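[Automated response] Your request has been received and processed.

Submitted sequence:
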Amino acid sequence: MNSSEQPSTSLNSSTWPPISSSGLGMSCFTMTFGAVSNITALGILVKSRVRFRRQSKAPFLLLTVALLMADFGSHVIPGAFVLYLYKQAEKQPTFCQIFGACMVFFGLCPLLLGCAMAMERCVAITKPFFHATVVTVTHARRVVLFLASLALMLAVLPLFAVGTYSAQFPGTWCFLPIHDTQSTANTSLALAFSGLGLTALTLSLLCNILSGVVLLKARINPHNVNAKLTARCTCCPSSASTSSVFWSLDVEMMAQLVAITVVSCVCWSPFLINILVMQLNRSPRESTDVPDGFTLLCLRMASWNQILDPWVYILLRRAVVSRACCAFYTHRPRVTADGSYAGTRGQTFSLQ
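Generated structure:
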């Protein structure tokens, strides 16, 4: 990639700028904190696997584990590359290509898996009989494999001379050259990355809205939901003992999904939209300092998505929410949001 006379926001992968060690401590902190958070969330899911299997929620459990493993990998592997940049004086061009491929792969995987989780819950809530009879763990495994393969295929294309990766300001990360004058292949890859990410976020929002509307209608008219849940129990008798347990677990998982979607949209939208706008508006820029700082800020926001995801599962569990509610309502620890549900929901406080 030819360097211009003007300072560039995409640094040449073979001529790295001097890297200040001031950010080393923060990089170590975010990598360690993110890895520990994801391991903790995975441990909680392992303990709750029996409950998920008993409720025929194994596909959702598998997708959740895949998401947390992708988040864990996105901290450990790119984090190790960043530490290498701080410690190694000379960087090889091949290193930047591998680093950029990891950034693209671990950036897309959480977005695609989050979308798959939202679609799975949407089908389970809107079409419970179809979900109980058709959707299996095998299907979930195939979906995870397909989405991972899709992200991997896009990530490795520059390794086969379809586009390229370059060092980005301030020299601590590699990505597709999204600022400078590019080839058609680079532009297409950047648009594909941004388009896939934004599409995944949009589908997640739509699925969660639809699922939320169905759950809200079921709350207003409980007779309908009881009939549907009875059909699910008839189809799969071992999946639940009572319809209220189904309802409780569905609402718990929906609350987690909504939180994941909100976190993903807040963290990833600026970075993805910034890439999309820069590819569509190819006019030369008078100053490169502003886009440098803004893109770096967007990247830091996106990196916090993989830190916050596990805390959704750590905090938004029935046991945690129940203790929190009991702390606020010590005079009446068993609380329901609506008095009409007191008879069937009096044992525990569930997200509703």
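Summary generated for your ticket: Strands lie at 10-11, 166-168, 173-175. The chain has twelve helices and three strands.
If you did not submit this request, please reply to this message.
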